[in-house]
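WARN retry 2 of 3 for item q-0093 after timeout on previous attempt; input resubmitted unchanged.
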Amino acid sequence: MKRFNVQLLLVLLVMLAAVQAEANRVLVKGRVTFASGSPSPNHRVIISTDSLTSTNTCQVVHQKFTDNNGYYLDTLECLTNIVKVRIATETCGALAVQDRIVPISGVVEANFVVCNPQPTTCVSSFNFERAPASLTVRFNSSASQGTSATDTIMQRRWTFGNGDTLGGNVISPTYTFRQRGNYNVCLTIRTAAGCEKTSCRTVSILDSVPPPADTCVSSFAFERAPYSTVVKFNSSSSRGTSVYDSIVRRRWSFGNGDTLGGNVINPTYNFTQRGVYNVCLTIRTAAGCERTSCKTVSILDSVPPPADTCVSSFAFERAPYSTVVNFNSSSSRGTSAYDSIVRRRWSFGNGDTLGGNVINPTYSFTQRGVYNVCLTIRTASGCERTSCRTVSILDSVPPPVTCRAKFDYNPVAATSLTAYAVKFNSTASETSIADTIRERIWSFGDGTSLNGNIKDPTHVYTREGTYNVCLTIKTTKGCTSQECKQVVVRSGTGCVAQFTYERLGAKRVRFNSSTSLSGTTDSIVQRTWNFGDGSSVLGGNVVSPLKDYLNQGIYNVCLKIRTASGCESTYCSTVRVQDSIVTPPAGDRVNIVSVSPNPATTQLSTVVWSQQNNLNAELAIYDIYGVKKWGITKVLLQGNNVTVVPVSSLVAGPYFFKVTTMYGTKSAQFYKL
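OK item q-0093 returned
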C-alpha cells in the first residue's frame, strides 16, 4: 500500500508541474458588447497579471482595443507562474473589473456588457468580410444608428468605388467586384429625424487572383508589448514554390540600416529609438525563386506614461468633403478611477479655442487646410496634460465632376458593294467616382446619328469614304465630353493601312496595326514601318513592333502595307516622344524619376530608375498618416521602369508614392484630385 501511495504522489507532482508550466503563458480573450447587444468596437480593455508574492515579482500590464465585432485577444507571459489575471474596462464613467484564476488550460475568457452610447447625432458605420482570393464582399451596416432609440434609419445608399451604387435600405448587401484594385466604399444613411451621415472604408481586392502555384511567397508577422522597443518577427508563413522547394536564405532589413542574413525564421530585434520602420523580408528558395515582402512597424509608443499621471486623448471623424468635424475625448482619464476631469480646453489650430469641459465638441472649419488640433485637460487632483492630432480638411471641396469620351472601332468590309459595316466600342469612356454615363450620342459622319446609351453600336455605311465620327457622353452629374475620329471605310476589294501607338516608357513606344484592312478575300503579306528617325523595318509582316527611340522628340511614323493581291496602302501619323525626365543623382542605386500627372485623377504614371537588373522592390502609396493604400511587388530592370498606378479609388488629398528595395526607401509626393 505504501508503494502505491508513493507512485500516486509522484504522478500528482508531475501533473502539478505540468499545470504550473502552462501557467507561465496565459491567453486572455473575450468580447465587449453594449447593453443593446451590439458589439462595442475600439473599446479599451486593460489586462494585467495579479501575481505579486514574496517569490513572484512578475507584473505585466497590457492595453488592448476591441475589433469591429467587439472581440479582443491578448497573451500574458512571465518567467514564473501566473496565478490570477485582472481584466478591466470602462462603462458609464466607471471601471468594470473581473479577477480570474488561471485554469489548467491557460485560457481565460472575460466578457463585458457596457452602457449603450448616447449619440447626439446619427452614425454611419459598417464592416465587411470576404474569403481570400474572392471578388465577392459581404457588408454589414447593423452598427449604424439614429440620433436616438426612436430614430430609425429610413435610407441607406451604398457606393462601391467603381461607379456602381445601391439604393433603398439594404443593411447587409453582398457585392461582387469585377476586377482587382482598391475601392473606396461609402455608406450614406438618412434617418426619420432627417439626420444624414456618410462613412467610407477602403476595400482591397488586390489578392483577388491567388498567386500561381509555382511561385514562392515571402510573408511574416510581428508582435510587441505596448511601450516596448523589442519586436518578435515570425516568417513561418513564407513558403517555396512547392512542398519540395525549401527556403534556403532569409534576409531581414529593419528599416534603419540594420540587416540580418542567414536563414533565421523568427528573429527578435530591439529598435534603439522611437519611429516608424519599413521592415522587409527577402527569401530565396532551393529552386531559385526570390520574393520580398515589407510591413510598417511603429515604435512611437515605446515610452510608457507614468502610472500615476492623467491622459489627454481624443478621436475625430468627418464626412468626406465636409468641413464639420466631430471630436470625442471620452478616452481621456484622470490619474485614477477617482480623479475626474474638471476642465477641457480645445485649440483648433486656427486661433479658435473652446473652454469649459465639453467632451464631444463639433467644430466647423471655415477653409481648407491641415490643422494641429490640441486638447488640454485638468483633473481634480491638479494633473494637466495636452495631446494634439493633425486634422486634414484638404478634401473639403468635392473633386470636380470630370468625364472623358473614348471609343475604338473596327472597320469590317462587307461582302456587298452597297453596304459597309463598322463596329464601334465606347466601354473605355471614363467618369469620376460615383458618376455614371446616362447618355451616349453617336454621330457617324454620314448625316445619321444614334441617341440613347448604346455602348457598342454597329453602323452600316452605304458607300466608301472617310467619315468624321463623334461620340458625345453625358453623365448623371452633368459632365459632357466628346471625342471624334476619322474612320476610313473601303470596299471588300480595297486595303487600308492603319495603326495606333502606346507609350511604354520615357522613349519606348509600342505600335499596333491590327486594325489595318486587307479586303474580304485578301490578306496582308507585308508591312513596312518607317519610324521617322531614320530607322525602319523593311519587309516582313510585323503587326506590333516595339521601338526604343534614342532621343525624345516628335516623329512622323509611316506604315505601308501590301496584300496578296497587290493592293498597297500607306498611313502616316505624328508620334510624340516627349517627357520631362530628371537624370538620377550620382551614387543612387534606385530613384523615382517622375510621377505624373500631378495632380492625378484616375491613374498615375510612375518612372523608377534602377542601377542594377532584376532588383526586387515594393511600390506603394501611403496617405499623410502613414496608412498604406495600395502596393505591389515588382522586379525592377536596369534603367527606367514604367508602372501605371490606379488612383481613382483614393479620396482627394496629398499622398506619397514610395519605392522600397534592399537599399532603402525613396518617396515622391503627389496630390489626388
